[in-house]
Write a structure and sequence with these properties.
By secondary structure, this protein is an alpha+beta fold. About 30% of the residues lie in helices and about 35% in strands. The chain contains four helices and five strands, in the order βαβααβαββ. Strands 3-1-2-4-5 form a five-stranded mixed sheet. Helix 3 runs antiparallel to helix 4. The chain is elongated. The protein starts with a strand and ends in a 6-residue tail after the last strand.
Length: about 120
């Protein structure tokens, strides 16, 4: 099997409810998202047709809408749902990093990075 190609979405900065503390449940905070979407894009490379590639704009819009409407306690759960959106959008595999800038004193951010594939969300 051939290696998969990768689309990178870097530093998507959104605001949403995330965390366990009372103030985190009431006030939106910054959420920084990075994704690597893996798919076979050889056909699109030959055809130059958007229909032949992974539509990262559609996936990103779905992630934005989801994050802005969600209220997860853990970044792990949020990252998993973002991965599901990417897989449902056609990615064969995805790496998702979700960070909370300024969540820890003296640290630029804290977060998680997960890797999921289609089989992780098969019913």
């Amino acid at each position: 099997m051939a290696e998969l190609d990768k689309i990178l979405i870097k530093d998507l900065l959104l605001r949403g409810i995330i965390g366990l503390n009372d103030w985190e449940r009431e006030k939106e905070q910054d959420i920084l998202i990075n994704m690597a979407l893996f798919a076979d894009m050889r056909t699109a490379g030959r055809s130059d047709r958007i229909e032949d590639t992974l539509n990262y704009r559609t996936i990103t819009k779905a992630v934005i809408a989801y994050v802005e409407a969600s209220a997860h306690v853990t970044v792990e759960a949020l990252a998993t749902q973002i991965a599901r959106i990417a897989i449902d959008g056609g990615a064969e595999r995805v790496i998702v990093r979700v960070e909370k800038p300024g969540a820890l004193r003296f640290a630029r951010s804290v977060g998680v990075e997960i890797e999921r594939e289609q089989a992780d969300f098969a019913s």
